[in-house]
Amino acid sequence: MGVSVVRIRVLVVDDHRIFAESLAAALAAEPDVDVAAAGSGPAALRCLERAASEGRTFDVLLIDADLGAGGLTAASPPVRVPAPRNAPPPAVLSATAPPPAASPHAVPDHGGHGAHGEEPADGISLVASVRSTQPTVRTVVLAEKDDPRRAALALQAGASGWVAKDCSLQRLLAVIRGVLRDETHLPPALLTGVLRELTAARKHRTESERLVESLTPREREVLRCMVAGLGRKAVAERLFLSPHTVRTHMQNVLGKLGVHSTLAAVALARRAGVGPADLGPGLGDVVERGGQLA
Fold it and tell me: DSSP labels for 140-169?
């Protein structure tokens, strides 16, 4: 009797054809790894959605840190994705046309925004998108160079690992299997820098929280309305205040937060974890016009 092997489904997301092809081929040679590939963030999100609908969810995404900086275009040659062992011949990932419907191993890359809204601008943006749409999928960022700041941003976005593109295949496989055990993987040389970046980000957040705590309860209500995108008149209607009183509260909020625009106040509020006020039907005026309070 044969021994059942738990297979790991991996999606390689990289817009450099040669790298994607080589990595997919190397991973597909492993007896417990199934591989597919996508050439852009939108294609990866579509692939995740389709796989989930078919009950074949991916376990790990390997995402190029510089995704979108160059690679597949409408005129690029197709990427050949190897199929797992004992599977039909490998399918083709094309930047211009979907693969044959009979093959489950390739992901069409049409580009554009698709059904998922705003297109992820880079690899770290895709990590955040995956975290919000498929929270059970682990993401590992593949980078050409060590960058503590970007590695910290990737971890904050939800990545489980940051790996150099020139690492060995065995190292990459160890990371893939490790993140499935809820481990976080970073190159040892990056640890100090990443911890410094995360500490600085936490300090920045703490300062933002302190500033928000200096607001009165009413000013915090106004700030939450600002975060929700409400202008002065809409805030006045919601809080049953006069527009003049709301304007005064907004000016006080800006002064106490030490900022000069509503957009800056909203950014600081989000860093401090301030959520938007719940909006009723028909609310949602423009918060700021030309840098001034609406």
Answer: EEEESS--HHHHHHHHHHT-SEEEETTS-H
Distances (CA, A) of 12 to 156, 193, 257, 288: 21, 27, 43, 41
Q: Which residues share a beta bridge with 142?
A: 64, 163
pLDDT of 107 reads 41
Mapped onto helix, strand or coil, the DSSP state of residue 36 is strand
Alpha-carbon distance 49 to 148, whole Å?
31
CA dist 16 and 20 (Å) reads 6
pLDDT of residue 145: 81
The pTM score is 0.56
The radius of gyration computed from the CA coordinates of the chain, to the nearest angstrom, equals: 23
Distances 163 to 25, 139, 174, 175 between C-alpha atoms, Å: 18, 11, 11, 8
Place of tokens 């790894």: 33
pLDDT tens, residue by residue, 70-127: 544 333 333 444 444 444 333 333 333 333 333 334 444 433 333 334 455 578 888 8
Q: What local confidence, expressed as pLDDT, does residue 269 receive?
A: 87
Within 10 angstroms of residue 93's Cβ, the number of other Cβ atoms is 28
Q: What is the C-alpha to C-alpha distance for residues 139 and 287, in angstroms, rounded to an integer?
A: 35
Which DSSP category does 114 fall into?
Answer: G
In whole angstroms, what is the distance from residue 182 CA to residue 193 CA?
22
**Residue 210 structure tokens:** 């302190």
Percent of the chain topping pLDDT 90: 30
Q: Is the pLDDT of residue 193 over 90?
A: no
